[in-house]
Amino acid sequence: MKILLITPGRLPIPANLGGAIEDYILSLGRELVSLGVDITILDISRSFSDRSPKIEVLQGIKIVRIPKYAVIPVNLKSNNVLMRSKRLLDEFIWGISVKRFIEARLRTGRLPWDIVHFNSPIPLIVNSKLLTKNGIKVVYTEHTYFASKRAGTFFFRKILEPKIMKSVLSSSSAIIALSSKTASALATFGISNDKIHVIALGIDKQYLCTLDTEMSKSFELPSGSNATSFIITFLGRIHPQKGIETLLEAAKMLKEHGVTDFVILIGGPLSGDFSVNKDIPSLYALKLMKYIKKERLKHHVVFLGHLTQEQKMALLNTSSVFVLPSYYETFGLVALEAMASGVPVIGSKVGALCDIIRNGYNGYLFKPGSSEELFSILLSLYRNKGHLKELGKNARETARKYLWSNIAKRTYELYKKLS
């Protein structure tokens, strides 16, 4: 079986900063190769000056790098409408680049792949007719769909994106949804449930290493923090989507109820993304810092900035509990990484967190934005360290089910049904 995996054409694989979809493609590809599948990844060139396809092998996977025929370098992050418009145009340009590559292969004979697996919508729309005409099945993984008023402007959320999704879903032989909530949302577009398959993201087995005292010690708690026995952690972008203010409000309540020996360690780029200026605070980060100062939480809340993979693992090994208070998430992979480290997770009732977290077994769920509910859960766990330990043990068992080797097997079974 031969599979062509198409990247979104944003960051070259492997993505050193951010790049969750790129990580998904590389990890899935690596495990599929171990199952005997012939995998090729079609990716963007490392440099804009590379104007011809280049082939390299990474972790046993053939990667073909092709140029994107144009780029839009202007930074439009301050304007949500323009930013989303730029992203769609970027995807369209990448889709054209992919189409030219496929057409060039056609001129040398029939296409060599059984299935082409897309991971962003516009390139699929651009290429679906060409692939279908040549007998190639199309698989699509939906990484980012969420029906939320916070997900964008009315025009994008209610008019343009539904049109895009309907076109993508009707053009695909099979759709992979990362959570049951995403699957339910996609089904509202009139697509048969038989076409939608819930296959989660995976985690690397390195996160399941035996809890390492030395690793925990390698992470030094910030000087001046009040942490002794209750360390609350958050990992992710410092972005309004993540609902970090909910966690800070819960921290204020803990303090007001006489809990003093706790610390909240927040790891992630202060800029809100993984750009080169990742630790220059955004307006949202500055707003959070102002709240911390106003409520006198500076000895309880520490921003760590961007962390390396090793630092992330060390931080998780130090944690008592992990909190992900997002207003929306398609998946929330970091929650699984925390569980694999033996850390119970408290998460908002969004996305795949509802699939992963079982109340009272490996963590707790709470209503997005409800600082009172989050506070009650944290206070209960602070007072019952024995229960905290049991939750952590169950969390590690949960994480084992999500190893990439298991996720790849399920994806391979889907491929076999289509071929």
UniProtKB/TrEMBL annotation:
Signal peptide: none annotated. Residues 22-205 form the Glycosyltransferase subfamily 4-like N-terminal domain. Keywords: Transferase. CDD domains: GT4_PimA-like. Residues 224-397 form the Glycosyl transferase family domain. The keyword Transferase applies. It comes from the Bacteria. One of its GO terms (molecular function) is glycosyltransferase activity. PANTHER family: SULFOQUINOVOSYL TRANSFERASE SQD2. This is Glycosyltransferase family 1 protein. It comes from candidate division CPR3 bacterium. The lineage of its organism: Bacteria, Bacteria division CPR3.
